[in-house]
Amino acid sequence: MTKIPENLFRDLADDLEMAIFLTDEEGIVHHLNERASSMIRLPKLTAVGRLLKHLLPLDIAELLADESREALATGRIQYMMKRTLILPGWGIRYYDIRVIPYRSSEGGSWIAHLLLDITNRERRKMASEKARENAEAEARARRAFLARMSHEIRTPMNGIMGMTDLALQSDPPEEIGEYLGVIKSAADSLLGIINDVLDFAKVESGKMELEQQPLRISSLLDETLALLHPAADDKGIELKGEVDSALPELLIGDPTRIRQILTNLIGNAVKFTDSGEVIVRLEPGPKPQDASDEEITIVGAVSDTGIGIDPEKLESLFDAFTQSDLSISREYGGTGLGLAICRTLARLMGGDVEAESSPDKGSVFRFRIQLKKADDSAISESPGYGALTDSERQENGYGSVKVPCWDGITVLLAEDNRVNRLVAENLCGRAGLKVISCPDGAEAFLEWEKHRPDLILMDLQMPNMDGIEATRKIREAESSGIPGNPGNPEKVPIIALTAHILEEERKAAAEAGMDGWVGKPVKPAELYAELERLLPPVVSGK
């Protein structure tokens, strides 16, 4: 048998990436490796024979002495993780330490002190945590900016659209009515652009959340086609849709976002087609291997006979703020965000959006999404899933807004913007509501205590006290048993009026105790729908 060289273990110890000190029971160093020598900045020969506690900082030396006694007494290895040492010439370092006891058959005890330098690992971890904290702070700042921009943009839009609606409802002269119609159309277009930008910002910040509720895909398609038929008819384009009978009647998904995909893709096809047809087809697609039995793939194809696109530019269409040609942007308008949002939404639903096209030969845009099958027993109970609500139909031009009447009912309106306050007062007044107005949350609380209204319309962002804090204060007062109107013992319904679009704002409003939500610009049908949901039955209709 080959004899092992005497210096093999010494060389092996020197090659290890940890400092090793071998001491006796008294703590005198008998051996140390190169890493230990480098750590204490002393040659081996100088360190041997000295007490370990004289070679290391006092705090760690005392710790090692305590652990050494424990190791010798119990015969067990002692572990110390992520200890901080301040070493001369090295600064702050981090170590994992093990103290290992040995008893010699020839008598006597020895202790091996193993110190593994984990400084670089810990610094990488701290750098990673710092980067994560910075990223989270950046995301918070982005969300705050998005919320602020949403409020700052939508607040004046609310005034423009609200006052235009009120003017149109006052039977203006024909010429003035035409002017107001142009203003309303332009405002609707601007709001669409604003929504695209804010939707994209929401997607970019990772705050786009999908709902899961029953829907009828055929109803979604029918409503979308009905919305876009007037534009197609104006151009003499045939617009039709087909739904494969193999698709389940009732599905589970996010109808709002599916409608958004359909509206973007079909709207683009109509916009870029001057003659011919736009055909939409929905059918089942191949199921991914990892899909469950309850999942189903929906494949949609929107084909047109429009201007077409250069194949080399197809993929760039899905980049934000991009259109295939600047001349197209000048002629047809748009932000270049619609397709980017569509693709992101489809990918959130487990699918994608792709395109095929050739110049002057039309285009085919295909989307693929994953939905879930709904329980068959729900079909007969859910005839309207996926269709627009009455208020949504009215907002999108399917019919005039029906104005309910709540004569004798009092509403407290908390709104700091004078124009928005005037719009809301007029909308409420048309419905027979008595309105008490105030400009901030602090005054809203005082007015609630004084008048005990039947309902509160509460703006979220106001000076002195915001709407969420005012709501929280009202709910606390109600629960504390402050005497109220004996004829109205229930807590007062509170509807948030806000230009904010972020989901956390909705959650914050709900957690504060708000019962409803109306976004700005305030649409009459949406406001009346919330009022009907929360107020006593309507007395009559106008």
Search tags:
elongated; 5-stranded antiparallel sheet; single chain; 542 residues; 7-stranded mixed sheet; alpha/beta
Question: How is the topology of this model organized?
Answer:
Blueprint: H1 8-15, E1 18-24, E2 29-32, H2 34-40, H3 44-47, H4 58-74, E3 78-87, E4 91-103, E5 109-117, H5 119-168, H6 174-204, E6 213-215, H7 217-235, E7 238-243, E8 251-253, H8 255-271, E9 277-285, E10 295-304, H9 326-332, H10 338-348, E11 352-357, E12 363-373, H11 390-395, E13 404-405, E14 410-414, H12 418-430, E15 434-438, H13 441-451, E16 455-459, H14 467-479, E17 494-498, H15 503-512, E18 516-519, H16 524-534, E19 540-541
Parallel strand pairs: 7-9, 14-15, 14-16, 16-17, 17-18
Antiparallel strand pairs: 1-2, 1-5, 3-4, 4-5, 6-8, 8-12, 9-10, 10-12, 11-12, 13-19
Overall description:
With 542 residues, this protein is an alpha/beta fold. Helix content is 43%, strand content 22%. It is built from 16 helices and 19 strands. The strands form four sheets. Strands 6, 7, 8, 9, 10, 11 and 12 form a seven-stranded mixed beta sheet that branches. It has a five-stranded antiparallel beta sheet with strand order 2-1-5-4-3, sandwiched between helices. Strands 15-14-16-17-18 form a five-stranded parallel beta sheet, with helices on both faces. α14 (467-479) links the parallel β16 and β17. It is elongated and about 110 Å long.
Q: Nutshell version of this structure?
A:
The chain has 542 residues and is of the alpha/beta class. It has helices spanning 8-15, 34-40, 44-47, 58-74, 119-168, 174-204, 217-235, 255-271, 326-332, 338-348, 390-395, 418-430, 441-451, 467-479, 503-512, 524-534; strands at 18-24, 29-32, 78-87, 91-103, 109-117, 213-215, 238-243, 251-253, 277-285, 295-304, 352-357, 363-373, 404-405, 410-414, 434-438, 455-459, 494-498, 516-519, 540-541. It has 16 helices and 19 strands.
